[in-house]
What does this fold into?
Amino acid sequence: MVTDKQSLIMIVDDNPTNTKVLFDFLQVSGFRVLVAKSGESALEKLQAVTPDLILLDVMMPGIDGFETCRRFKEQEHTQNIPVIFMTALSDVVDKVKGLSLGAVDYITKPIQLEDVLARVNVHLKLYKLHQKLEQRAAELATTVEQLQKSQFQLVQSEKMSALGELVAGVAHEINNPIGFIQGNLIYVQQYTQNLIDVIYLYKKSASQEEITKYEAKIDLEYLLKDLPQILTSMEEGVERISDISLSLRTFSRADSAVKIPFNIHDAINSTILILKHRLKASDIHPTIEVIKDYSDLPNIKCFPGQLNQVFMNLLANAIDALEESNLGRSYYEIAANPNKIFIQTALTDDKNYILVRIKDNGVGMTESIKQKIFDHLFTTKPVGKGTGLGLSITYKIIVEKHRGTLEVNSILGQGTEFLIKLPIL
It folds into this structure.
């Protein structure tokens, strides 16, 4: 069985024979091992080191294992370390007491070394996963906090508006995978305990009738089928958080003083992911469908952060237009003519430029509004909903910063299309 050679195991036991056997076996198995001969000694050593798992004897002079465990769990820096009790006590009351104090498992003496190794590896794996999830959550919390601080500093600017979309989108998207990871952890803990109980029945040489009865009680067949699916779901949740983090980094990357090669599809995809919470179905409208028709494009030399802002402005405006077109229409009326955003990319015939089309089937606009759409401070949105800077800044980024072109085509009541043309070099 593979072990994590970086893991540190603390053995807390006053019996020198048991301690030596465990110490030698765990070292040979690839672990680093620390020994404490009493609960008091263990608490003292934990002020200087933090093990990854603790094997704790129950019956010891001075404070017993139960009290030692209780004190472990009272201290912030040790409360999450997995504790496995070791004892000759087999009374269910003692087991329940140990688990209620925060222990993750119970090993009955005389100890079977292979059993110890299997349990240690299982709980170390769960502990490492828990640490990674906590670290990821802390990183994401820090990122959101930094974004919120930046948002406050950019009040009254269009960048603040884009950042507001970003924070709302990331926070909403993170809540989903974290939610089902948290929900599934409850069942993982319950299933694990049920499996442990089944193992104890076998170890006690329980009758086949008793084992069969308990297996039926916990629905063992369903448990064995559902547990891998739950773990897969949790893994997908972690991957989802990783994807969101990657999109966040892509979107929020800082521009250098010179243009750099960049994949335009990365900018579009990261923006769509950030705005996904606005695209999802709600009580008042079905899902807003995003239809992508991407061509095989080369990287273009550009300022990626500025182009990210362009796509945020255009896609957020498209969603605004679709939401406006839904006013006064029922859910079923909208479903009959669903909201759609079309995104198409292509290379010009001379292969010197790329074209990006972003089109919606929203409210569209009149000819007079179309003539003013890129004017500074012009907006058709109500007070508090728009600054009149988004499309003006978008135009300057495309035309002035990247020597491209930005055109708009629109028919009132049918929708609006923005056409971006950018040089490759």
Observations:
- DSSP finds 14 helices and twelve strands in the chain.
- The first helix runs from residue 16 to 28.
- The chain has a mean pLDDT of 81.
- The chain has three domains: 8-111, 149-249, 255-423.
